[in-house]
């Protein structure tokens, strides 16, 4: 990797957190297609996995109290290394090994500052927009089932 | 220790683990099982792990084989490199002595019996297993071992055990069925001393 | 005496082959796909995930198919599967206050911030079988309405809590929550352990217990403070990152049951709460869970424990349907030796009995088994 100077700025971890969260929720096919252009020519070596396992999902008593174990969820994790030595990790809900592998590859590539802007634009923003769009659609469907108790009273306008 | 560069830290964390996680873990598990079943026998775990300081290769291999997210580990002077390595390789957390299921300590003495979990009468298995690196097997102080897994008695020579070792073993033995199990390590080699083994000066 | 129990291999193999045939049924009818089960029998899949204690809709759908729709069998398959996998980590506690809400109702407040959202509910349907269900007819798209600027939808209990008329959520002591998949149940159980057991407990068993509390077995007068269903993000703090990352979303159902409480020596009169949280869309289960959670908190409120729903050993030891079905169903397995021993015992007892009284005339004496 070109830049290995230590960077004490905490901002990259917030940015990486956002990027990794987006990779984890992306469609495997989308990630693979994006890798064809952004990661072109790079070799993705497997450090670990992809392997399936479990995460214990926790809730809180009353919604905001002491944590308790709600139940497990299946997850897949992967760690990869690129030929420049950068290491990337991923954990995704479900059992999609391809998604975990490409998510880890993008995490590694994202750490290359020369690639970061392109990944933020073409992958992270794209995934976030797709999620937001799906959420907005779901919200509008739910909103149509909202009870308006005052409909009968509101004749005047 | 100087605060490590996060990038170097992440590279160190993913290096030095088992080359073949399944077969290496099975081989090391089998070595530890053999050592604890036949106390006093020196078993070579092979050069399978290159852990960060202060772990020796055998200690690293033992933690890789036995550690996971459900087995908190205590290492006396662990740095963030070791924490990151153990976290990535095994999922195990570094904890204080009182919570540890596995612990790496410089020597075994009576103070260990005050700080590490000894198990309970209902669940004697809820005790810690200690990994202790010694200077050498085959030279130094002679110890006579007897108990389960030993036909009659056997004598081993170990250097670097510390002055309190035999007395601490005697106290440990008196706690049975509770107590601490020991795996002595030297480079890639291990020697098991479960709580049932009687250790006396030869 | 030992009765040989060898043989049966061919019978078992053929029985399993027959099972596979019957499961498939008429080959002229297309086979069910996993997508069809996950999509069109989603609530069955949700139950299998919740009680199987493993969130994975695809696997749960496969289990439903494999079990021919026998959901407890499917739950058993999921439980068996999860034991084969390593647990990598525990998530940060999910935040139901930041849920993407698909349904949210309150029986205690008509006008609550965020509104009453009915969502895809069976409520207000006529419970008449629809002739359309016999065929694959046209299905309209859902209605849509612009939600505008979506404000927060606070949990109802947080609204009432502001007036101190309702107990709070309790404190987070910071310790690791109990885990019944790692250490055996022990009594008295802590609330975290009870909630874990109830969350994976049998819907029917908890429904019956919840119902019993309403009928007077455990005095409560509950109101649904809020039910909300929707998706929440799952965050995991992994050592390889050093910060929590989102790994995806799960759908959950949460129920806040509000119950009157007259006060005790230490507490003023106030509303107390039972809590239900379940994987998937499982309103009945979440409601039942919250009723039973509240009943099990009897000691906290100095209530006398007299009803089954207040007895934590009774509830926790029997709410798991995989355990229950294992012990009940094992009775059908060969017990030839045990039964022979009992037969021998009976014959001995009969032989020792005075011959004067023929057994048919005194069935009562026979029943108590003594002379």
- CATH superfamily membership of chain B, which one? Bacterial phosphonate metabolism protein PhnH
N- to C-terminal distance of chain A: 66 Å
Number of structural units classed as domains of chain A: 1
The CATH class of chain B is Alpha Beta
Query: Order of strands side by side in the largest beta sheet of chain A?
Result: 1-2-3
Q: What general outline of chain A do the C-alpha atoms trace?
A: globular
Structural class of chain A: alpha+beta
Tally the structural domains of chain B: 1
CATH topology of chain B: Rossmann fold
Helix and strand content put the structural class of chain B at alpha/beta
> Major beta sheet of chain B, specifics?
6 strands, mixed
Distance between the termini of chain B: 41 Å
Number of contiguous helices of chain A? 4
What is the subunit arrangement here?
Answer: heterotrimer
Please give the number of β-strands of chain B: 9
Mean pLDDT score of chain A: 89
- Please report which band the strand proportion of chain B falls in: under 5%, 5-15%, 15-25%, 25-35%, 35-45% or over 45%: 15-25%
Uncertain stretches of 5 or more adjacent residues of chain B: none
Number of helices of chain B: 6
GO molecular function (chain B): lyase activity
Organism (chain B): Jiella avicenniae
Pfam families (chain B): PhnH
Keywords (chain B): Lyase
